[in-house]
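Quick one before lunch.
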Amino acid sequence: MIRDLQESDLRPLAAIWSDPEVTVHLGGPRDFDWVVNALAEDLPAGQETYDLRPVIEKATGQIIGHCGYLEKEVEGRTEIELTYVLAQPAWGKGYATEAAAALRDYAFQQLKLDRLIALIEPGNTASEHVAEKIGMRLEREVVRPGGALRLIYAIELQTWNPEQYAANARFVAELGLPVLELLNPQPGERVLDLGCGDGVLTEKLAALGCQVVGVDSSPAQIAAAQARGLDARVVDAQRLSFDAEFDAVFSNAALHWMRKPDEVIAGVWRALEPGGRFVGELGGAGNIASILEALEAVMPGHGVDPQTLIPWYFPDEHEYRQKLEANGFVVTAIERFPRPTPLPGDIGDWLETFAGSFLMPFAGDERAHVIAELREALRPKLMDEQGGWTVDYVRLRFAATKPWSEAAEREYDAMLTDIAWAMAV
Ligand code: BEZ
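Model of the benzoic acid complex:
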């Protein structure tokens, strides 16, 4: 069991952190009293989300470890690290894997994270095995600010492969053209393309004369966008830090991958100048209902609860309007409509490209078998007599404006006055 810190936990946790063998791969033993004092500082305010918490052995009620999440900057990217330390008597009982799996599930389901990492000292094979058992894969080596070398293991709900995306998902950008029309971009406008993927629509905005910045959380997709010569940056759209830098924010088929819509909308608000517009399209309530139904029917038979791995947010028009208005936007248009979407190929390619979270635990023949079962479950609803596949997409399309506030209008008038004075002298 993992729970919040209590005063009685301080000394047992300090005993773990001051054990030289336990901490051999974790920076070495800490001073007992220093740990007690450092942990005691957390007590009055309560614990932050990203913090370590005591691990309790259910049978005995004893504290056997300390585990949780830490927020870290790794090579310019804000990452959430999953980390744990276990007391020696708890070794070899599978507790590390149990705790790590529970942390992974909590991160994806409750915290709505899309990615978790573990930073592991080379040679710490026990931790490497735990990372692999919970589905993490070795990504690369990094040198930490203090000079220590660490292996990055990572797990992501959805990974993007630009070649696979280009082969199976070109229709996404093609079908985004009406959203571009709704945006009605003007030459010279500064536009932020939120969730730009491999940059096909970003490139169109640039060709129309906009000064466009594309952002996406996938380094692979951003590399593909940069290869088109675009200003494209790896940014988590749920943590935007732009400040009144854009005339418009545009988003096609990306917002449903962001499960913290309030954070997104607040960041878009900050990114826009007063008078700026937010125009986008995402999957709406009812989107891909047949696929969700098939996942519910098939995945439990393979030991996977699909509810725990859904990486999508499909709101209806009332909910999304309410969220936009709660942030101060004036909604000028919002509609939800079915848009059955013919696929260029097989439903298996769609599943491989877009439903990776559910297939994550499977490889090789087993993966092919799971996909074949999903295909059979989907065939009656989504395949036509000629063998073509059409997915039951539902779109939510909207346009909203950040209105001028009185303060912003005063500031603008003052700026015009300054310019007039400057031109007069
Ligand atoms: C969509 O565009 O609605 C969508 C695409 C892939 C997965 C889920 C939804």
